[in-house]
Amino acid sequence: MLKVIFCQKSDRVNKNGESPIYARLSYNDKQISMSTGQAISKERWASTNNLRNQLKIEKEIIIKNLLDLFQLNAAKKFTELFRIDPEVNLQLLKAELTGKVKID
To answer: Does residue 18 contact residue 41 with C-beta atoms inside 8 Å?
Structure first.
């Protein structure tokens, strides 16, 4: 099945000193990365164990909830594509998640 891992692109920093959070989608020894549209400081990402620890700052709680929704949406779209063809194309999944393609 689909595996989603969130990682931070620490080589990129926005004007607020935050780095974007990317999702790495893996299936059948293939993988693709895509932006989640969320960003957090490197220090907070590390100190919260990639947002896995108990969160106290509201912004971090919101980001964690958005990442959970992203993961659920990715799993839902993957399941729809899997029903059509078990050899799911990750490029098509990415296009579906970004809204560039719609599944009929």
So the answer is: yes
